[in-house]
Design a protein that fits this description.
The chain is of the alpha+beta class and about 210 residues long. It has 2 domains: about 5-65; about 70-200, Isoleucyl-tRNA Synthetase, Domain 1 (Orthogonal Bundle). Strands 1-2-4-3 form a 4-stranded antiparallel sheet. The protein has a two-stranded antiparallel ribbon with strand order 5-6. Helix 4 packs across helix 7. It has helices at about 5-10, 30-35, 40-45, 95-115, 130-140, 145, 155-175, 185-200; strands at about 15, 25-30, 50-55, 60-65, 145-150, 150-155. It starts with a helix and ends in a 7-residue tail after the last helix.
Length: about 210
């Protein structure tokens, strides 16, 4: 389920909720804002492909569970927002370094994947099921709410980038995107490289550090 499709049905982008470790949950106040009975919105959402569960909460909010959260990376395009972070100190205590290094790491994954023969096609979003990658997807799901049109950063953008970068560092180290040792390229690597590209396109920073 792509968030864009979900937003079309709701009339506005939903907000992610929870950790997404076990299930990918969005919540929405669309029924309240549009003056539509929540149960009517539930009936509209149930037949939508990619929605695995939907319910109306007592407060009128909708809770929507999607089957394949990895599909959201297909909607992410390069933001090309300014890089506001200082270059030094290059330590983990510097949030700017955390963000810029994550951007450079994601760029490196793209280069390594090409050199190691990981295909650029054949993306299967359901393979982004490692807890580390689901944590990255959870942060990426906030992107629509973190941008002020047309493509400008909304308040809290810097903190959002730090959280995305931190999640990506864990994924980069604990669930590598490219083959290691005697491994050959596989569909899992294709999916993880595609996620790295999405992170690269959202974070600001240099291509190399």
């Amino acid at each position: 389920m792509r968030p864009g499709r979900l937003a079309e049905v709701l009339g506005e982008p939903p907000a992610p909720e929870g950790t997404w470790e076990r299930e990918a949950v969005y919540v929405s106040a669309a029924a309240l804002r549009r003056g539509v009975p929540a149960e009517e919105m539930v009936e509209r959402l149930r037949p939508v492909s990619g929605v695995s569960a939907v319910e109306a909460r007592p407060n009128g909010f909708l809770r929507v569970v999607v089957e394949t959260p990895g599909e959201l990376v297909e909607e992410i395009e390069p933001l090309r927002l300014p890089d506001p972070w200082p270059d030094f100190p290059r330590t983990w205590d510097n949030p700017g370094f955390v963000v810029r290094y994550a951007h450079a790491r994601a760029a490196a994954v793209w280069r390594w994947a090409r050199d190691l023969g990981v295909p650029a096609t054949g993306f299967r979003p359901e393979l982004l099921d490692d807890p580390c990658h689901r944590a990255v997807l959870r942060v990426l799901a906030e992107l629509p709410g973190r941008l002020a049109p047309p493509g400008r950063a909304a308040p809290g953008w810097e903190a959002f980038q730090v959280r995305l970068a931190t999640a990506y560092h864990d994924a980069h180290e604990l669930a590598p995107a490219v083959p290691v040792g005697d491994q050959g390229p596989s569909p899992v690597h294709v999916a993880r490289v595609r996620l790295a590209r999405a992170v690269h396109d959202v974070l600001a920073g240099p291509e190399r550090i």
